[in-house]
């Protein structure tokens, strides 16, 4: 099938889609509840329900435009207990502390993390089917220094507490299911193990690969014993190159081979509850475009060498100066940040072959480019502000559903126009990222091998939030500085 495009900046260009050539199967698009949901989940019902609709809804307005971005997985922060410690936690910002269900005396309080549990239930009610629980630190009861961050800059849990940590996770999984009817499909026990987490900016715990393997073995043993079928997700590397390169931090690199190559001393890929998935965060590798593509090509090649292994991009927001492309400081509710985000999602999916793409904090109270939805820093009430980053993520998450397969697509244009395509059963989704100011005029032409009927297109731009538009006579226009999703059927 050939789509003929004309654009003054490029001249006549074409896009060719080949549904017979397939790549990865998409597992999910997700975001995290850390940290604001602990408070926003206690806001007035009307406001928090509207926020939940924006994140989770698959419904549509009267004109066919989506009410929300339809995330297909939700990440729940299982807190370590810094909130209960207050200022003594060493984490100055209370919005970055987290409660723990585990009390100091060893009992459990299932009224804790109530705001987060509200969002957990809201996600399930709106059709989210997959859930992941993650820990930034083991509970303070089990840490070496009694803190939820690593004040000494090294692993903060001793091997004699690995089994305690594992039993705690089993209890949390069962307790959450009892109070919310939500089952954690996945547990991610380690977060960005390459960093030392010694500054008290948030809960955190560093690990070497050997220490991760020890913790995971303990969790797997306990899950098998307790009949927990939640899969253990490993990696959560602070940057993608830690998966396939030697780390500047001894014992923390080459994670693909270290965890999933049978000859490795840290091999855990054969454990019953370990998902055949490696995860990493896309920070610090997204600019410039040429190096972003090079890094992701190397990652995809490394993962492909392990039979059946999947890669998830499991956390991202816009941080740093990104080689001068965009500064992560300051909120940006508009298209500058959104278009940059779209390029990151595209490269992670179409170059790194990510099977899942997950944003960091769904709701932010900060002046950074770290939120899909921003809120006033108010624990009981306030205003909220949807960003264009929310809607651009929706160009992917709302239409590329779990089980969709990425298919081959090529273009005669250069990489200033980013295009990816997906199919599920007879449904086809095409996502076009147009960062240029010029409009794209597209004539949709069906090749002789098969027929495609295009139903609608959904536009995110400076004036539109996933706005639905009908496709008439196979002619569409992709506005300048926009992301457009086209849906149709084979």
**Helix residue percentage:** 10-25%
**The CATH topology of the largest domain:** TIM Barrel
Low-pLDDT windows of residues: none
How many beta strands in the DSSP annotation? Answer: 21
The pLDDT mean sits at 95
Query: What's the tally of helices?
Result: 10
Give the CA-CA distance, first to last residue: 11 Å
Structural class: alpha/beta
Please tell me the CATH architecture of the largest domain by its name.
Answer: Alpha-Beta Barrel
With strands numbered from the N-terminus, the spatial order across the biggest sheet is 19-18-21-16-15-14-2-1-17-20
The CATH superfamily name of the largest domain is Glycosidases
> What fraction strand?
25-35%
| Main beta-sheet annotation | 10 strands, antiparallel
Cα radius of gyration in angstroms: 22 Å
> What is the highest CATH level, the class of the largest domain?
Alpha Beta
Account of the 3D structure:
This protein is an alpha/beta fold and 490 residues long. The chain folds into two domains: 2-22 and 416-489, Sandwich (Immunoglobulin-like); 27-402, TIM Barrel, CATH 3.20.20. Helix content is 24%, strand content 27%. The protein is built from ten helices and 21 strands. It has helices at residues 37-40, 45-56, 82-85, 114-125, 162-180, 209-225, 255-260, 289-304, 335-350, 388-397; strands at residues 2-7, 11-25, 28-32, 73-77, 130-134, 186-188, 231-237, 274-281, 310-315, 356-361, 363-364, 373-375, 384-386, 405-411, 418-424, 427-434, 440-445, 453-461, 464-470, 475-478, 482-489. Strands 19-18-21-16-15-14-2-1-17-20 form a ten-stranded antiparallel sheet, with helices on one face. It is globular and about 70 Å long. The model has no long low-confidence stretch (mean pLDDT 95).
């Amino acid at each position: 099938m050939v789509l003929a495009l004309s654009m003054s900046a490029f001249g006549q260009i074409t896009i060719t889609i080949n549904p017979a050539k397939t790549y990865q199967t998409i597992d999910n698009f997700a975001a995290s509840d850390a940290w604001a949901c602990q408070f926003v989940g206690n806001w007035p019902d009307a406001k928090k329900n509207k926020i939940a609709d924006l994140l989770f809804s698959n419904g549509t307005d009267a004109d066919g435009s989506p009410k929300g971005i339809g995330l297909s997985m939700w990440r729940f922060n299982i807190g370590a207990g810094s909130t209960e410690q207050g200022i003594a936690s060493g984490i100055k910002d209370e919005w970055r502390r987290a409660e723990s269900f585990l009390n100091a005396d060893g009992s459990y309080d299932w009224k804790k993390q109530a705001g987060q549990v509200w969002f957990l239930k809201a996600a399930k009610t709106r059709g989210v089917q997959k859930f992941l629980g993650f820990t930034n630190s083991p509970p303070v009861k089990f840490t070496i220094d009694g803190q939820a961050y690593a004040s000494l800059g090294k692993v903060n849990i001793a091997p004699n507490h690995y089994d305690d940590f594992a039993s705690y996770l089993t209890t949390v999984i069962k307790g959450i299911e009892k109070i919310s009817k939500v089952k954690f499909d996945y547990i991610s026990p380690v977060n960005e193990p390459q960093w030392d987490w010694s500054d008290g900016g948030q809960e955190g715990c560093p690990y070497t690969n050997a220490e991760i393997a020890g913790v995971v073995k303990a969790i797997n043993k306990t899950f098998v014993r307790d009949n927990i079928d939640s899969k253990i997700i490993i990696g959560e590397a602070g940057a993608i190159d830690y998966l396939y390169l030697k780390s500047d931090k001894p014992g923390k690199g080459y994670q693909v081979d270290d965890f999933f190559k049978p000859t490795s001393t840290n091999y855990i890929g054969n454990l019953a509850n370990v998902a055949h998935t490696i995860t990493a965060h896309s920070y610090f590798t997204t600019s410039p475009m040429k190096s972003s593509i090079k890094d992701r090509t190397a990652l995809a090649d490394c993962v492909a060498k392990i039979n059946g292994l999947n890669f998830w991009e499991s956390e991202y927001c816009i941080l740093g100066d990104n080689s001068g492309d965009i500064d992560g400081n300051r909120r940006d509710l508009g298209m500058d940040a959104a278009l940059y985000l779209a390029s990151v999602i595209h490269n992670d999916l179409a170059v790194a072959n990510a099977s899942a793409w997950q944003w960091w904090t769904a709701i932010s109270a900060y002046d950074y480019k770290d939120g899909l939805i921003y809120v006033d820093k108010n624990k009981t009430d306030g205003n909220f502000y949807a960003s264009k980053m929310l809607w651009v993520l929706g160009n992917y998450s709302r239409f590329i559903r779990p089980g969709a397969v990425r298919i081959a697509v090529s273009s005669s244009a250069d990489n200033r126009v980013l295009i990816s395509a997906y199919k599920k059963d007879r449904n086809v989704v095409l996502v076009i990222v147009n960062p240029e100011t010029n409009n794209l005029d597209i004539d949709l032409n069906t090749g002789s091998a098969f027929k495609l009927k295009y139903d609608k297109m959904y536009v995110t731009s400076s004036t539109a939030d996933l706005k639905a538009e009908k496709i008439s006579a196979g002619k569409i226009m992709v506005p300048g500085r926009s992301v457009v999703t086209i849906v149709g059927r084979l």
